[in-house]
């Protein structure tokens, strides 16, 4: 009797596992059995090519699909993740290593389903959760433009994801848990401009890929989540786009938001780190109307956010730390940023009252001091002023002290942000991949 129960239990368990495996397989590949496979040649009319090129730039494809110093869009860039590196693919029309043998349906499957030619599942370092929102005519135009570029023979390097995370079964399970193809649905309560901005932010712009927290398995909180988070491995903090204290999007005039997106600089802020790359390769090339639409959507989201808790007054800092920080500031910072952190308008940013200085997470400040701060060179700001790196010149305790001085002594009452410790600086220095 007991052996019969054991056999029955084992059979039920195996049956359950088989059903689960079938469900996972259907979720990831079931559409191949039901959807028509269109193998029409790519579009070649001028309007489609122009639109496709614009969409490729809006999606910032060149940034990830270009190795440092390499040919644009030929792939080979390592996208570092907590689980290993994923190497970007070749998007040029080379027949052996690029898109030369792909069809419009293959490209649609990649952007909408996150699945390569032949059915291979793509690692989620490629933001297919966001590109899934694109319509078929969008992906067809993008594919047509990519196929019109010069072919470059450059094989894709093998990913170095820890086993078994890069295997097809593991990716299938991850996708079943965290990904489903979707379409963009306009909000009928909002204007056409707001919906255009939402489509750009949630889709091609894939803003939540950085500005959304990720769980232990690397999944973000969704295409519309803009609540901010620490970007793993690269170790930059992407501020919340709905938090007034962190980005002030709710109160910043729309023209200033547009200017920041277009040039990387306005009177209140400047971009650096990963965001500078986004402005450099993507946002500066968008039309004023699209930048305005993004600004309208982002400001609307920020104004809808709940009220913020009052800033807590941080505990006082030891006199020795304050004195050390003041000495470092006078020697290395005051020449550009002013004795009181007032900065030079249009050249060196003010540090007093600066939201980037006052972020609760000091990661970006530490990064800027260690490795320098560089705004992108854009048509609207072709010769931006940069900040030199101090990674070899200042010790952890010096950096911690001067940043504490910035966040405490140079800030108006009620805006002090608290001490930065040498341990925090050491951790960021050790963990950052440059």
Describe the model.
- The protein is mostly helical and 434 residues long.
- The chain is built from 19 helices and four strands.
- It has helices at residues 2-29, 31-34, 46-58, 61-64, 104-113, 128-131, 136-147, 168-178, 192-202, 244-247, 254-263, 274-281, 288-304, 319-332, 334-337, 355-358, 363-371, 396-408, 422-431, and strands spanning 78-81, 84-87, 229-231, 236-238.
- The strands form two sheets. A two-stranded antiparallel sheet has the order 1-2. It has a two-stranded antiparallel ribbon with strand order 3-4.
- A hairpin with a 4-residue loop joins strand 3 and strand 4.
- Helix 11 packs across helix 13.
- The longest helix has 28 residues, at 2-29.
- The radius of gyration is 24 Å and the shape is globular.
- The N and C termini lie far apart (64 Å).
- The model has no long low-confidence stretch (mean pLDDT 88).
Distance between termini? Answer: 64 Å
Which strand-content bin applies to the residues?
under 5%
Which sheet architecture does the biggest sheet show?
A: 2 strands, antiparallel
Quaternary: single chain
Rounded Rg: 24 Å
**Helical content class:** 40-55%
SS elements, strand count: 4
Structural class estimated from helices and strands:
mainly alpha
Mean of residue pLDDT values:
88
Give the SSE string.
HHHHEEHHHHHEEHHHHHHHHHH
Low-confidence stretches: none
Across the major sheet, the strand order is: 1-2
Number of helices: 19
Shape call = globular
């Amino acid at each position: 009797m007991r052996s019969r129960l054991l056999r029955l239990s084992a059979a039920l368990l195996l049956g359950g596992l088989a059903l689960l495996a079938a469900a996972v397989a259907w979720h990831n590949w079931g559409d191949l059995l039901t959807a028509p496979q269109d193998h029409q040649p790519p579009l070649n009319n001028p309007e489609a090519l122009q639109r496709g090129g614009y969409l490729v730039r809006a999606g910032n494809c060149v940034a990830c699909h270009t190795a440092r110093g390499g040919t644009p869009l030929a792939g080979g860039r390592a996208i570092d993740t907590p689980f290993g590196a994923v190497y970007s693919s070749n998007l040029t029309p080379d027949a052996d290593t690029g898109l030369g043998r792909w069809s419009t349906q293959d490209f649609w499957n990649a952007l909408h389903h996150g699945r390569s030619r032949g059915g291979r599942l793509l690692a989620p370092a490629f933001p297919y959760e966001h590109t899934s929102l694109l319509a078929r005519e969008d992906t067809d135009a993008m594919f047509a433009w990519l196929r019109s570029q010069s072919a470059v023979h450059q094989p894709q390097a093998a990913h170095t994801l820890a086993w078994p995370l890069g295997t097809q079964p593991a990716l299938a399970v991850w996708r079943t848990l965290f990904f489903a193809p979707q379409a963009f649905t306009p909000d009928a309560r909002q204007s056409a401009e707001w919906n255009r901005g939402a489509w750009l932010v949630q889709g091609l712009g894939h803003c939540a890929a950085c500005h959304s927290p990720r769980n232990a398995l690397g999944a973000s909180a969704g295409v519309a989540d803009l609540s901010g988070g620490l970007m793993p491995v690269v170790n930059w903090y992407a501020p919340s786009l709905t938090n007034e204290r962190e980005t002030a999007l709710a109160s910043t005039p729309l023209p200033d938001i547009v200017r920041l997106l277009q040039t990387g600089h306005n009177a209140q802020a400047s971009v650096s780190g990963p965001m500078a790359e986004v402005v450099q390769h993507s946002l500066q090339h968008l039309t004023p109307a699209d930048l305005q639409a993004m600004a309208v959507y982002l400001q609307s989201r920020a104004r809808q956010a709940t009220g913020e808790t009052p800033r807590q007054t941080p505990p006082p800092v030891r006199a020795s730390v304050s004195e050390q920080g003041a000495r470092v500031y006078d020697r290395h910072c005051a020449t550009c940023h002013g004795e009181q952190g007032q900065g030079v308008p249009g050249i060196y940013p003010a540090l007093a009252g600066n939201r980037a200085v006052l972020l609760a997470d000091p990661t970006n400040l530490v990064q800027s001091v260690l490795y320098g701060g560089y705004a992108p060179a854009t048509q609207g700001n072709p010769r931006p002023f940069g900040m030199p790196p101090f990674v070899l010149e200042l010790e952890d305790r010096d950096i911690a002290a001067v940043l504490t001085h910035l966040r405490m002594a140079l800030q108006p009452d009620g805006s002090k942000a608290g001490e930065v410790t040498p341990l925090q600086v050491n951790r960021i220095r050790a963990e950052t991949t440059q």
